[in-house]
Amino acid sequence: QITLKESGPTLVKSTQTLTLTCTFSGFSLTNSGAGVGWIRQPPGKALEWLAFIYWDDDKRYSPSLKNRLTITKDTSNNQVVLTMTNIVPVDTATYYCVRNNIFDYWGQGTLVTVSS
Amino acid sequence: QSALTQPRSVSGSPGQSVAISCTGTSSDVGSYKYVTWYQQHPGKAPKLIIFDVSERPSGVPDRFSASKSGNTAFLTISGLQAEDDADYYCCSYSGSYSWLFGGGTKVTVL
Questions:
Q1: How far is B41 from chain A (nearest CA, A)?
Q2: Closest chain B residue to A35 measured between Cα atoms?
Q3: Do A106 and B103 touch (CB under 8 A)?
Q4: CB B29 within 8 A of CB B100
Q5: Exposed (0-12), middle (13-18) or buried (19+): which is A103, by Cβ within 10 Å?
Q6: Left (φ > 0), alpha (ψ -120 to 50) or beta: where does B47 sit?
Q7: How confident is the model over B58-100, as pLDDT tens digits?
């Protein structure tokens, strides 16, 4: 059974750095072709792809956010971490982690609220 | 990169068919066979219902079908059912290992 679960702060102040962790099970990020990504959704708005990391540590970022994002993996603990610097209120959103580059499995999401 | 364009809403009665368009450019939808569609019910995480333009994952009813023509992808829901009332998002690979989502379409079952 494949599961992913996001964890991190629910409230962050502007200008701070947000760190989110995705803990997954049922697959391995050491397998060729595997990957985990992050997608966010502001309240009442559309989905936005943020970042993706592959089994070989190849990392990809949204062009509009790449200067603020860092994605890393910890294969021994089945975790992927996303950091976003210089957080502002428009970054308020539900953040989802997803499996593979067709986003075939999703975590339940974690709502992050940014206060000014 | 701009988001893919979807109609804000479509509606239909039970048993009818509805179609949702997803318009991109020759740099994304028009260039790759990597279009996916997701269904999202209120308060829930999205669910993959179509990948690689027209392929259905195991367990997705065959009343969901999809295609692509030029820079536009289409999702069709045939034999509309009450549980199809949800938001639908398209997504396309847009080169350089990045992905674009559409703005979402609200499907209302009347």
A1: 12
A2: B97
A3: no
A4: no
A5: buried
A6: beta
A7: 999 999 999 999 999 999 999 999 999 999 999 999 987 899 9
Tens of pLDDT, residues B19-59 = 999 999 999 999 999 999 999 999 999 999 999 999 999 99
Average pLDDT of chain B, as a whole number: 96
All residues of chain A having their beta carbon less than 8 Å from the beta carbon of residue B1 are: 63-64
Q: Could you tell me if A64 lies within 8 Å of chain B, comparing CB atoms?
A: yes
Q: Which residues in chain A have their CB less than 8 angstroms from residue B36's CB? A: 102-103
What separation in angstroms does the CA of A49 have from each of A65, B12, B16, B19, B87? 10, 30, 32, 24, 17
Q: How many CB pairs under 8 A join A and B?
A: 55
Closest Cα in chain A, distance from residue B72 (Å)? 18
Q: Give which of A24, A26, A34 is closest to A57, Cα–Cα.
A: A34
Q: Distances in Å between the alpha carbon of B52 and those of A16, A33, B42, B65, B106?
A: 38, 16, 25, 12, 22
Contact A48, A32 (CB under 8 A): no
pLDDT of A99 reads 97
* Mean pLDDT, residues A64-81 taken together: 97
Residue B84 is given by DSSP the state: G
